[in-house]
Write a structure and sequence with these properties.
The protein is an alpha/beta fold and about 550 residues long. The chain contains 15 helices and eleven strands. It has a nine-stranded mixed β-sheet with strand order 1-3-4-5-2-8-9-10-11, sandwiched between helices. A two-stranded antiparallel sheet has the order 6-7. Strand 6 and strand 7 form a beta hairpin. Helix 2 packs across helix 6. The radius of gyration is 26 Å and the shape is globular. The two termini are about 40 Å apart. The N terminus and C terminus are likely disordered. This is Alpha/beta hydrolase.
Length: about 550
């Protein structure tokens, strides 16, 4: 999803093209001459979220928010990771931003600076135009219906070699019920509008046209919806523009939520009213049609209302296809073959980027790794892409004998606005597979299978109660795994992502995400307390020996 505007300052850049060498992870020999010292550069790999993402937009967001030095320009360049065993057969050029980041200090030490190379996994073009509205509605309806069947029960999930029965979150049932009601309401409203417009403007039903009373009722209903929708939109925009915490504007945020809830209820009620009116009044008009043409004698107001309603309907269609279409493609791939192919291409693209970064060496095959620490960060649906890519490189490294040392070199996995818990539950609800299937599926995910890998890779998840897409990630560990010493996902709410609807794009506007990334890039073990206060308010971090 396209992020909202954050800081207004923009880092100045220099440009260049260079090449460094890497080994493929499945052909990694034992390290020769590798040093134990830390190289001065770490890598940050970003995965953007769903929707029409502009190329390099996520890369620019990271550079603009993390780059510290204003004296030194950030450097942007395209880098090709080549295999020295296959000259000229390197991977495609990857965009990279080279920035300087100020990292939090240890107790008794001055603030340090860290040089960071930022990469982006840009997968948006692979899903563009690959799904239609019908498939999106089918996916949402199926997810709602199947999810409701299991929303009040436990569901099985294999975690660290053991099948666990996880409790479904208490609000899951009502979220799915609301989603299903809204989707069906939108479908019904658009169906009635299409039938009326087809009968009266395009002559799809030559035997009759809509009675004037029906036109009047529908016009009144559409007018109420348009006015209410416009009012809610303006109230939410007002909260988003002010960019202040809800504690500083509690009334505006509270009323925005109230208006949004009332709009949803009005939408459901209007759908029922419009559907009932269409059936009842058409059934009453049993005599042959003697009505005037639809536009004959109609007021300008009626024409404007219907034109506005069609425009809003078209915008909603584009939003559903552009954003939720990506979710359907990536999460419904197990069922639809064409989506399976697209998901495989996205996974391959992400895996190639991650492999190149982890495999890069300073002096060819025998040199030390170029990056002693790699941090992965992902927004929204990109968290699924990053999760799959990290699991893939962990499996590849294990198959190659651990030469890449991926668990030890992974500074952190930072997800923000992630729907991973929701997609995990819906996948189990929709697939309805046996225990054998769920065990095999989990075995491809070292982050929920290999306790050693999970202990080595710290996972930080930022979420917000105002963000209906994200949530705390509770389905990737269990009480039994925590009791065995496997660390849970560090779920941390972001107080700066608070605006209804817009909260999903507000993480880069605040300080929590920036601080989490700076801590991860510097190699700190992150705690909730570290992300509870701004840097100016926080105490220095304890020394490494404390």
């Amino acid at each position: 999803m396209k992020p909202s505007q954050g800081k207004q300052n923009r880092a100045e850049v220099n440009g260049a093209v260079t090449q460094i060498y890497s080994l493929k992870p499945l052909a990694v020999p034992e390290l020769v001459g590798a040093t134990n010292g830390q190289l001065p550069v770490v890598a940050l790999v970003l995965c953007h979220g769903m929707g029409q993402q502009v190329r390099h937009e996520t890369l620019a967001e990271a550079a603009n928010n993390l780059h510290h030095s204003r004296a030194e320009k950030a450097v942007v360049r395209y880098v090709q990771f080549a295999d020295p065993d296959r000259p000229g057969k390197g991977d495609p050029l990857l965009p990279r931003a080279e920035i300087e980041v100020e990292v939090p200090s240890r107790e008794g030490q001055p603030a340090a600076r860290q040089f960071v190379h930022v990469y982006e996994v840009y997968w948006a073009p692979l899903t563009e135009g690959m799904i239609g509205l019908t498939d999106v509605v089918r996916f949402l309806t199926s997810a709602g219906v199947q999810g409701l069947r299991y929303a009040r029960n436990q569901f099985p999930r294999w975690l660290f070699g053991k099948e666990e029965s996880l409790d479904v979150k208490p609000n899951t049932f009502w979220q799915l019920a609301g989603l299903l009601a809204l989707v069906l309401s939108l479908v019904l409203i658009n169906t009635v509008m299409t039938l009326v417009l087809g009968e009266n403007l395009f002559g799809t039903n030559a035997s009759r046209t809509a009675p004037p009373e029906l036109i009047n009722r529908l016009t009144t209903c559409l007018t109420v919806l348009l006015v209410a929708g416009g009012f809610v939109y303006l109230s939410i925009r007002r909260c988003n523009k002010q960019q202040r915490k809800p504690t500083q504007q509690p009334g505006a945020v509270r009323w925005a939520w109230v208006f949004l809830g009332l709009l949803c209820l009005l939408l459901v009620a209007s759908a029922g009213f419009m559907g009932w009116s269409y059936v009842a009044l058409h059934r009453a008009a049993a005599q042959p049609d003697t009505h005037e043409p639809w536009l004959s004698g109609r007021s300008v107001w009626v024409v404007l209302v219907w034109a506005a309603a069609v425009t809003v309907s078209w915008w909603c269609r584009g939003f559903l296809v552009q954003y939720l279409g990506d979710v359907a493609i990536y999460t419904d791939a197990y069922k639809v073959d064409k989506y399976y192919t697209i998901r495989t291409r996205i996974r391959r693209l992400a895996q190639r980027t991650v492999e190149a970064v982890y495999g890069a060496r300073v002096e060819g095959a025998a040199g030390p790794f170029y990056y002693q620490r790699v941090v992965m960060a992902a927004h929204s649906l990109g968290s699924l892409v990053a999760y799959d890519a990290l699991n893939a490189i962990l499996l590849a490294d294990e198959a190659a004998g651990g030469g890449l040392r991926v668990p030890a070199r992974t500074g952190a996995l930072v997800t923000y606005g992630s729907p991973l818990d929701k997609t995990t539950f819906l996948f189990h609800a929709k697939s309805q597979k046996t225990a054998i299937y769920t065990a095999l599926d989990s075995s491809r995910q070292p982050l929920v299978w290999d306790a050693a890998a999970r202990r080595a890779v710290q996972w930080v998840n930022l979420h917000s109660t105002a963000d209906i897409i994200s949530g705390a990630l509770d389905y990737f560990d269990s009480p039994a795994s925590r009791a065995a010493g496997t660390p849970p996902v560090l779920n941390c709410p972001d107080p700066d992502a608070f605006t209804p609807v817009y909260a999903h794009t507000q993480y880069w506007n605040g300080w929590v995400l920036s601080k989490a990334l700076r801590l991860a890039l510097s190699g700190h073990t992150i705690s909730v307390g570290d992300l509870a206060l701004r840097d100016a308010e926080a105490n220095p971090l304890p020394s490494a020996g404390a």
